[in-house]
Amino acid sequence: MQTYIDLHRHAAVRAALTCHPKVALRLMVAHAITGSHLWSVKPEPQTARSDEVRESVETCRGETEFDEKRRAVLALLDFSAEEPTVTGGNGDDYGLAELFLRLLDLPDRAVMDVLVIVMGETLAAGGAAVEAVGMTIGVDMARYWQADDAFFELLRDKEVLLRLVAEVAGETVAAANAKEKGKTLKRIVADHLAGENGRAKVGNWVPRWIAFPPSAYTTRGGVGTVKAHARVEAARRTDDEPDPTAPGNVLALPALNPEPQCEPLPLAA
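and the corresponding structure tokens:
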């Protein structure tokens, strides 16, 4: 009998919920934060084997700006300021309901502020989603990144280093230093970026791999961001011909008869 009751109530609630998209949005955000036995959402761990890489990311402008906004959302939701993330709940049923009711009291703009932090925390690093979003909103990496010691430490390929020298100092300088060791080539690049040791300063420079869209310095392949970009480009449909392997058009659902004060949800093909 309890199963009978639970399933009928479930069916009724989700049918009625289709008329209340703002309520559904808050319910979804609560699930993404707290979790349930059906929802398992994990924050991106940002793991790195190198302490230098971890420190570089933790102190970069992008992480600093995001953390500032995350702390504002923690306060908005009455979470402890010591929590490292907004997401990553334990799926507690009471906590889920409590958070949902809290979100109902917030205006749409505030809920959107929560949503962007939830999405940012759970966005997987190194995937096509980062590439697609970065291209869509036009992320300028020069605003968020500048070369640091960790970056130069990871540069070990002579061919790539010569291409970097050519990019910041010109082909003539690169050709003149073609036989120099990697340490010297790194110093040339660093001096140009800082405008030191008589080198002309080059501002707003980012290596091709980091920019949106990314590209490579060699034809050898193996650049993760370039591979991710290729997957995004493959997902774009550049013609009007229907994809024979794609599912058919979605049929419009029968018109709903919303209850009074119910905000209808547009259901379209």
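(Above: one complete record from the training split.) Residues 250-260, 264-269 have pLDDT under 50 and may be disordered.
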